[in-house]
C-alpha cells in the first residue's frame, strides 16, 4: 500500500524546520550565479517525477541526503565518490549556499540541491525504486519527550523511504541521541522490506565525514550510532 504524506506527517512531522535566511556575501553570490544550474526549489518543481539523469547530465547511482546542513560532509562524500550522483535536500538557504561554495571549490559536477521539504520530494517527485541510497545524518533529535512525535524517523517515513530504494539500496542513519537511536533501530527492523546489514549497530564507517554535530556530541561525551539497512530483493 502506498504511504500517504498525511501518514508520514502525522503529529506534524517534517523533514526539516525553516530557519533564518541570512546569508554571507559569498553564499549570496553563488546563489545568484549557480542556483539555476544546481538547485531546485520545492515550489518550482513541476508535477510528477523529476528526471534525475537529465538533471545530473548522466545516468549514475543516486544517493539522496535529507538535511545536508552546511554541506561540507556532502561535498567530501561527492569528492570521494565521483561515480555517484549526490542529491542534497535542505530548507536552510545559507546551508545550500555554503554547499554550492564547496561545489565550486572542488569543481564538483555530481551534486544537485533541493530547497524544500524532503518528504514532499520523496512522495511527489521520486518514483518507486529510483534511489540507490538515502542518508540521514544527525536529524533534529527533539530531545524533550513531549516533542518526540516531531521526530523525522517514524514507521510511515521509513516505509516511504524504502519504497524509493532500489533492491540492494541502503538507508544510512546516524544520531548521537541514545533513545532516538534505539527507536530508529526498532522502526527500521520492523520494516519488512529492509534488512539490517549488522546485528544491531553498524561500525562507524571510516568514509562518513565527521560533521559539526558529531564533533559536538563527542566533546559532550555522547556516543554516536550508525545504522545501515538494505532494501530486500523482491520487496
Automatic annotation (TrEMBL):
This is tRNA (guanine-N(7)-)-methyltransferase. One of its GO terms (molecular function) is tRNA (guanine(46)-N7)-methyltransferase activity. Substrate binds at residues 144, 176, 211-214. Belongs to the class I-like SAM-binding methyltransferase superfamily. TrmB family. It is an enzyme of class 2 (transferase). GO terms for cellular component: tRNA methyltransferase complex. It comes from the Bacteria. HAMAP family: tRNA_methyltr_TrmB. Keywords: Methyltransferase, S-adenosyl-L-methionine, Transferase, tRNA processing. Its EC number is 2.1.1.33. The keyword Transferase applies. The keyword Transferase applies. Pathway: tRNA modification; N(7)-methylguanine-tRNA biosynthesis.
Amino acid at each position: 500500500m502506498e504511504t500517504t504524506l498525511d501518514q508520514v506527517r502525522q503529529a506534524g512531522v517534517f523533514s526539516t524546520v525553516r530557519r533564518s535566511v541570512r546569508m554571507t556575501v559569498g553564499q549570496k553570490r553563488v546563489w545568484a550565479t549557480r542556483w539555476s544550474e544546481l538547485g531546485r526549489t520545492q515550489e518550482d518543481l513541476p508535477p510528477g517525477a523529476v528526471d534525475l539523469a537529465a538533471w545530473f547530465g548522466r545516468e549514475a547511482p543516486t544517493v539522496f541526503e535529507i538535511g545536508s546542513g552546511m554541506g561540507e560532509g556532502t561535498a567530501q562524500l561527492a569528492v570521494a565518490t565521483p561515480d555517484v550522483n549526490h542529491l542534497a535536500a535542505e530548507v536552510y538557504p545559507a546551508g545550500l549556499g555554503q554547499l554550492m561554495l564547496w561545489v565550486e571549490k572542488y569543481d564538483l559536477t555530481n551534486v544537485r540541491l533541493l530547497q524544500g521539504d524532503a518528504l514532499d520530494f520523496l512522495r511527489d517527485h521520486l518514483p518507486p525504486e529510483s534511489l540507490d541510497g538515502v542518508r540521514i545524518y544527525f536529524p533534529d533529535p527533539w530531545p524533550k519527550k513531549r516533542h518526540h512525535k516531531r521526530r523525522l524517523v517514524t514507521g510511515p517515513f521509513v516505509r516511504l523511504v524504502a519504497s524509493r530504494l532500489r533492491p540492494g539500496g541502503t538507508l544510512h542513519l546516524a544520531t548521537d541521541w541514545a533513545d532516538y537511536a534505539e527507536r530508529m533501530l526498532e522502526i527500521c527492523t520492523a520494516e519488512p522490506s529492509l534488512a539490517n546489514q549488522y546485528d544491531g549497530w553498524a561500525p562507524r564507517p571510516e568514509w562518513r565525514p565527521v560533521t559539526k554535530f558529531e564533533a559536538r556530541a563527542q566533546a559532550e561525551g555522547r556516543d554516536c550510532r550508525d545504522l545501515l539497512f538494505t532494501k530486500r530483493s523482491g520487496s
